[in-house]
């Protein structure tokens, strides 16, 4: 059973306490709870409020009833705070960002070009496969050089648009 494994203080005990410790560190960073309320780690297994192990995304952690109640209360308070936010129109947001419009526009154009690069690469790649089926070696050589230059052009264009996209969106975001 769980309590027997915890009493042996072996590998399983170490695994659980390490994961519980990491969860406690995260909770300390997020909220200001008292040590006695959040740490089943420092209590003995028989006296602990540790009542189950829950698995999420491949990791396990220990939870107590008090922790669950506080998390639910925190989520409820957060929901109330979010409800008090007044609605803002999209046009008003755009007006507030008038100074960043050149960066946003250039970043958007770069993102569109960048998005077109992958399908363009796929189309050219499929055409070059057909070329190698041609029995004439001279035609294969000429078209191979042409398509190789197209791949280089796509790479260069992708480099510049990716840089421009990151710079423009980064600059507009930093200004905002």
UniProtKB/TrEMBL annotation:
GO MF, one annotated term: ABC-type transporter activity
Limits of the ABC transmembrane type-1 domain: 105-176
Keyword Magnesium found: no
Composition bias type Basic and acidic residues, residue spans: 65-78
Polar residues composition bias: residue spans: 44-62
Pfam families listed in its UniProt record: ABC_membrane
GO cellular component: membrane
Keyword vocabulary terms for this entry: Glycoprotein, Membrane, Repeat, Transmembrane, Transmembrane helix, Transport
Stretches that traverse the bilayer: 103-133, 145-164
InterPro entries attached to this UniProt entry: ABC1_TM_dom, ABC1_TM_sf, P-loop_NTPase
PROSITE patterns for the chain: ABC_TM1F (PS50929)
The keyword Transmembrane helix appears for this protein: yes
SUPFAM superfamilies (alphabetical): ABC transporter transmembrane region
Residue stretches in coiled coil: none
Chain positions covered by the region annotation Disordered: 27-82
Family: Belongs to the ABC transporter superfamily. ABCB family. Multidrug resistance exporter (TC 3.A.1.201) subfamily.
PANTHER family linked to this entry: ABC TRANSPORTER DOMAIN-CONTAINING PROTEIN
Protein name: p-glycoprotein
Annotated source species: Dicentrarchus labrax (European seabass)
Gene (UniProt): ABCB1
């Amino acid at each position: 059973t769980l309590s027997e494994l915890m009493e042996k203080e072996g590998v399983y005990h170490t695994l659980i306490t390490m994961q519980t410790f990491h969860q406690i560190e995260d909770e300390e960073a997020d909220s200001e709870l008292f040590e006695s309320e959040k740490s089943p780690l420092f209590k003995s297994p028989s006296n602990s409020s540790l009542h189950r192990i829950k698995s999420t995304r491949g990791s396990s952690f220990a939870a107590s009833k008090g922790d669950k109640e506080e998390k639910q209360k925190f989520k409820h308070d957060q929901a109330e705070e979010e409800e008090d936010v007044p609605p803002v129109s999209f046009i008003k947001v755009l007006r507030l960002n008038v100074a960043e419009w050149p960066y946003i526009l250039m970043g958007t154009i770069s993102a569109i070009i960048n998005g077109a690069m992958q399908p363009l690469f796929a189309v050219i790649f499929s055409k070059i496969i057909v070329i190698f089926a041609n029995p004439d070696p001279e035609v294969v050589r000429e078209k191979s050089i042409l398509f190789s230059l197209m791949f280089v052009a796509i790479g260069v264009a992708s480099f510049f648009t990716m840089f421009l996209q990151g710079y423009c969106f980064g600059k507009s975001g930093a200004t905002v």
